[in-house]
Input
Amino acid sequence: MKKLIGDVDDVVLDTLRGMAAAHPSLRVDLDQRIIVRADAPRTGKVGLVSGGGSGHEPLHGGFVGYGMLDAACPGEVFTSPVPDQILAATTAASGGAGVVHIVKNYTGDVLNFQLAAELAEDEDIEVVPVVIDDDVAVQDSTFTAGRRGTGATLFAEKAAGALAEAGGSLQDVAAVAREVNERTRSFGVALTACTVPAAGRPTFELGADEMELGIGIHGEPGRERTRLRPAPEIVDVALSAIDEDMSLSGSEVLVLVNGMGGTPLMELYVAYAAVAEWLGGHGVTVARSLVGNYVTSLEMAGAMISVLRLTPQLTELWDAPVETPGLRWGR
Amino acid sequence: MDTRRWIERFAELVAADADRLTRLDAAIGDGDHGANLNRGLRAAVEALGPDLPPGKVLMTAGRALVSKTGGASGPLYGGALRRAGKALGDAADADATALAAALRAALDAVQQLGKAVEGDKTMVDALTPAVAAYEAAAGDGPAAAARAALDAAEKGAEATVPLQARKGRASYLGPRSVGHLDPGAASTVLLFRALADAAGEG
Output
C-alpha cells in the first residue's frame, strides 16, 4: 500500500484536521467528528444533514456550506457514521424548523441514521429521512438490499440545500430531495480496485485488460467483469442501462460524469464527449453538466455517469448560488 | 453464566481473526468487517464497569457497539446484545434457561433491524440454528448448550457458502456472491465460540 497518510488509524481524523485548516468557513469538531457550516444553526431554516463512510470526498464534508449541507458526519473509511455522531450533526444543523437527513441506501447507513433520528426525536428535533437509491446496476431489488445511493446524492444535496436556503418547509425540502432521487439514474465502471487504508490491500484484483461494470462507491466489485473497452463503448453500456430503466428521449437533463478518484480529468472529458454525443443522438437535451471527482471511491480508477431529468424548478435549484469547498458558483 | 467473560472472549477471538473476517468481507462486501467489529468490541470491553449483573453487562456492551462500530454490524450486534441484556433484566445470575430466552431476544432484534431471513446469506443463517440448538440443549446446562449452539452456528455459517446474497452489500454482486462464506455468519460463529469458551471455563 502506497498512500499519502500518517498513522493509518488516524486517517479520518487527519482528513478532518486538514479540512478544518483549509476551510475556515467550516466548523470542524474533531471530537464529535462533524463538519458544520460556520453560521449554523440558522433560526427558522430547515437543516440539511448528510453523512456516510469516508473515502468519497468531496462527498459529504466538501458540500457543507451556503446553499447545500448544514452539517456532515463522516464515518470510518467506507463505514457509516455512528448514531451519536449523526445526532451531533443533526443538533448542530437544527434551527427549529426540522432537519432532513440525506441517506445513501446502504444497510449500515440506513440503520445508523434511523437510530439517530429516533434519538433526535427524543430531543424534539423533527427529522425527515430521504433515502437515495439511484444506481441502476442493482437490478432485482426484491432479492437485494435495494439500489445503492450514488451520484444522485450530490444532486439531492444541491437541490434540497437551495430550497432550504430559500426558506422551503421541512416537507418541501424533503420532497424535492425525493423528487431528484426519483428522476436520477446512475451507472458506474471501475478500471482498478481501491485500497482501504486499514485493510492495506486492494478490495479486489482486476487484470490489466479487465474492468468491472456496475460498481458502487465502496470499492466493491460490480455485477460483471469484462474486457476493457474504449470510452465510447463503456459510455454506451452505462447510458443504455440508464435509458432502459428511465427513458431519456425528449428530456432535458443534468449530466454528471463523475470520476471515482483515480482517473484523470482528461479521461473524464474523453468520456464526457462520448456522453454528449450519445445523448444528442438519442434525442436528449443536455441542459446542465458537471465533470469531475465528486462522489469518489478512494483511488479507484473509473467513472460513474448520473443523469437527472430536469424540471424548471430543479434547473433553478441547480443554478442557485452555492458556496462549499466542493461546489461553488453564483455568489 | 459469566456474560462479562463471554464479551471479553468474543473481543479476543475477533481481534485474533480480524484479518480473516476482513478478507471474507473484501471478497463479497467492502473489506472492513474485521476492523470495524474489532474496534467496536474493544470499546465494548472498555465500557464494562466492575460488578455489573449479567444483563447489564450485555446492555452496556451493546450500547458501546452501537455507538462505536458504525456500519451495519454495530447496530446489529449492538442491538442484539442490548436486547439480550434486557431479557436477562437485573437478575444476579443467568442460568441456561434465562440465556436461551436472551439469545432468542437477540435473534429477534437482528431480524427486526436487518429484515433478513434464513437463506439470505447473512449472520441470521448462523444465529438462527445456534439459538434453536441452545434452546434445545438448555436442560443440559450452559456449557453443553453453548457447545451445541457453536456446532449449529458453524454448520449454519458453512451453509452460506453456496447461497446467493439477498441482503447487505454482498447482494449487489448477485450470482457472484455464490461460493463465499458470509463474513457476518463467520463472526457469529466467533460469538458462539466465545460463549462456549466462557461457559466451559465456568
Summary: Chain B has a mean pLDDT of 95. Helices of chain B lie at 3-28, 33-47, 54-68, 73-88, 96-114, 124-137, 142-158, 183-201. Chain B touches chain A at residues 22, 26-27, 29-32, 35-36, 39, 66-76, 113-114, 164-169, 171-174, 176 (CB under 8 Å).
